[in-house]
Protein: Signal peptidase I
Organism: Paenibacillus swuensis
Amino acid sequence: MDYRPADGAEQLQSAEETPSAQSGKYGALKSAAEWIQSIGFALLLVIALHLFVFNLSTVLGHSMEPTLKEKEWLFVNKMVYLWDGPSRGDVVILEDPSPADPKKKFLVKRVIGLPGDSIEIADHRVMVNGVTTMEHYTDTVVEGNDVPPMTVPNGHYFVMGDNRHLYASKDSRFFGPVSEELIKGRADFILWPMRQIGSL
C-alpha cells in the first residue's frame, strides 16, 4: 500500500539541510572572514608604511629642472633622517615654510647648506664656506640678486631648486634656511615615467 505523508511533513523534510551542506556554508563564511581579515591587515600595513617608511610624491612645477620634470613620480624615503640629518646635495621633500600660505604645501628642493655653513651667492655662483660649489645638476648660473654671506643656524638647512633661472624656484633665497622639522624625507628614486627611472 502506498503511503503519502502530509504536506506539512514534506515541507519540513525539504527544509532540512544535510551535514555536508551545513559544513559547506560554514566553510564559505570562514573563508570570507579570513579574506576580509587579510585585506584589512594589508590596508593597515600600507597605511603604516605610507605614514612612517615611504611616500610617493608627484613633481609639480619646474623649480627642480633639469633634474626633475613636472609630473614625475618620486619615491620618498621617510625613515632616512631618523638617525642622521640631511647631507649636502640631498633632494628633499619639505613643508613650505612661507607663513603667508594658509594651506599646507610641500616643496622639493636640494640641500645646499648644512647647520653652521656660511652661504653666499655672488657673481651668479653659490659659495659654501667661501668655496664656489660645482653644481653639475644645474644648466645655468644663478640669475637674480646676490645673497650676502649668512650662517645657517643650528637645526636648519639652506635649500635651493636646481632651476636657477630668475624667479624659477621659491627657496631659501626667499624664505631663509628651513628647520629640520619641516623636512619630511629624501627623494631617492624617480619611479615614473619609465624612461626616467633611476636614482637621484
User: Anything to note?
Assistant: The first strand starts at residue 54 and ends at 58. The two ends are 92 Å apart (CA to CA).
